[in-house]
């Protein structure tokens, strides 16, 4: 399979459309107010830097960009690959991707999966496969072993309290209790995407059997037959953080029905239907397709607001929030849960600022913090990918400018020397101020830049 074919497959897996207009001019430039990205300079409301200010790195991966890529883009590309490679860790579990420099060797399924879908599946397929398999090994060992406060009595599952301290769970397994990762199902989407882009490494039988087993043992207890939705936190939104109303308990945060995670469940069911078909299990394929359709109907009935926008979540008591979530909207569009005019209506009113796209719109009034009053560049990238699908326009320049500022302009970096410092892709952006914060060398932010270069068709066809 040629590189061009693999990139084309990646576009298909992302549900991108060929009608998006891309010019032959130098790619990834943007002129806004005050955000400006030129071929050599990034300027925003808080500072500026040039391509020459960025570190010159030589990643192990030799895949490069086309000749029309700008100096800034080329520098950022090599930083992205280098950041990703710095996240490969090896321990008793094997070799796998960590989430970012600050997170050492913790095993985070969501970070690995989201980064894989954004672009690491294409660039680092073997490393991605090993990483996902590590997550399955860890999850299998942990099951429902949890710390005391993470036992959710309302969920009928084989809970086993092993400690009073969640930190002890992390110390023993390098991952959190299942209650803190009810978006675990995202790995199924990631593997389906990986095997689609790299069929030469596909093991469909392992994938289907593992996915089916995970549904039976881990996910089904969270399904609520009364409305056809899964109880689960909102995708990547850590429970009891500022991403939820102040005072919400662990149980409150996981007994709700997060729209983004339910969308991922829908995509996972379609992925298992595809895997079953690959394994010549026609009845099983029909079963998963039927379940996916039922979940899609439930999402549309329960989680789309009267004005056509997508709700952040339905709380444990049945109240549907009027607030929106950028990933909920993005996934509903990308997966075809809403299409055409519905998709455009769902996404058109969501704000896009010079500092990023807010995680939640409007912000939750009862809480403040970086899972609410913030923009996360990897979320921006999923959102803009969906925006391109909804209206057929090219947002790669704007996306590039937002990712460039996540490198940390010298005046806007909150803690320039912490977790990677200036010149690596950072985790998050505080809003409305726009300060860059969180981990440097953040896996899914670096992967977002790879995704961007793929969407802009900047990957060189000369690469082997």
Q: Describe it for me?
A:
- It is built from 15 helices and 17 strands.
- The relative contact order is 0.16.
Strand order of the largest sheet: 1-2-3-4
CA radius of gyration: 21 Å
**Binned strand content:** 5-15%
Based on secondary structure, the structural category is alpha+beta
Fraction of residues in helices? 40-55%
Largest sheet: 4 strands, antiparallel
* Average predicted confidence as pLDDT: 93
Distinct helical segment count: 15
Number of strands: 17
**Head-to-tail CA distance between termini:** 11 Å
- Poorly predicted regions are 14-19, 413-417
- Form type: globular
Keywords:
alpha+beta; about 475 residues; about 10% strand; globular; three-stranded antiparallel sheet
Summarize the structure.
By secondary structure, the protein is an alpha+beta fold. It contains 15 helices and 17 strands. Strand 1 (30-31) and strand 2 (36-37) form a beta hairpin.
């Amino acid at each position: 399979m040629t590189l061009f074919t693999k990139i084309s497959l990646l576009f298909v897996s992302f549900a991108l459309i060929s009608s998006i207009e891309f010019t032959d001019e130098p790619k990834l430039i943007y002129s806004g107010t005050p955000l400006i990205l030129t071929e050599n300079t990034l300027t925003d409301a808080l500072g500026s830097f040039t391509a020459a200010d960025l570190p010159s790195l030589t990643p192990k991966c030799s895949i490069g960009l086309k000749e029309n890529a700008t100096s800034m883009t080329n520098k950022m590309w090599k930083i992205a690959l280098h950041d990703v490679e710095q996240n490969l860790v090896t321990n008793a579990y094997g070799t796998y991707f960590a989430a970012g420099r600050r997170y050492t060797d913790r095993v985070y399924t969501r970070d690995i999966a989201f980064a894989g879908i954004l672009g690491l599946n294409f660039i680092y397929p073997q490393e991605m496969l090993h990483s996902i398999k590590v997550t399955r090994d860890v999850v299998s060992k942990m099951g429902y072993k949890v710390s005391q406060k993470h036992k959710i009595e309302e969920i009928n599952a084989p809970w086993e309290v092993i400690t009073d301290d969640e930190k002890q769970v992390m110390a023993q397994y390098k991952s959190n209790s299942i209650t803190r990762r009810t978006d675990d199902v995202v790995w199924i989407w990631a593997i389906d995407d990986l095997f689609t882009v790299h069929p030469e490494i596909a093991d469909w039988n392992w994938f289907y059997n593992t996915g089916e087993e995970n549904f039976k043992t881990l996910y089904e207890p969270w399904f609520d037959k009364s409305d056809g939705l899964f109880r689960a936190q909102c995708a990547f939104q850590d429970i009891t953080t500022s991403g939820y109303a102040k005072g919400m308990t662990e149980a409150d945060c996981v007994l709700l029905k997060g729209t983004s995670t339910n969308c991922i469940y829908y995509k996972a069911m379609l992925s298992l239907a595809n895997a079953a078909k690959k394994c010549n299990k026609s009845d099983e394929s029909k079963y998963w397709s039927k379940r996916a359709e039922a979940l899609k109907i439930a999402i549309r009935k329960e989680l789309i607001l009267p004005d056509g926008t997508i709700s952040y979540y339905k709380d444990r008591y049945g109240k549907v929030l009027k607030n929106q979530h950028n990933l909920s909207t993005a996934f509903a569009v990308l997966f075809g849960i809403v299409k055409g005019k519905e998709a455009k209506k769902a996404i058109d009113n969501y704000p896009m600022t010079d500092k990023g796209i807010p995680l939640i719109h409007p912000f939750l009034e009862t809480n403040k913090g970086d899972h609410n009053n913030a923009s996360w560049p990897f979320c921006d990238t999923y959102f803009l990918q969906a925006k391109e699908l909804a209206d057929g326009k090219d947002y790669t320049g704007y996306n590039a400018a937002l990712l460039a500022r996540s490198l940390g302009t010298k005046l806007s970096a909150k803690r320039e020397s912490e977790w990677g410092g200036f010149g690596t892709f950072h985790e998050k952006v505080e809003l409305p101020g726009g300060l860059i914060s969180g981990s440097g060398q953040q896996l899914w932010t670096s992967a977002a830049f790879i995704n961007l270069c793929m969407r802009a068709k900047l990957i060189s066809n000369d690469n082997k």
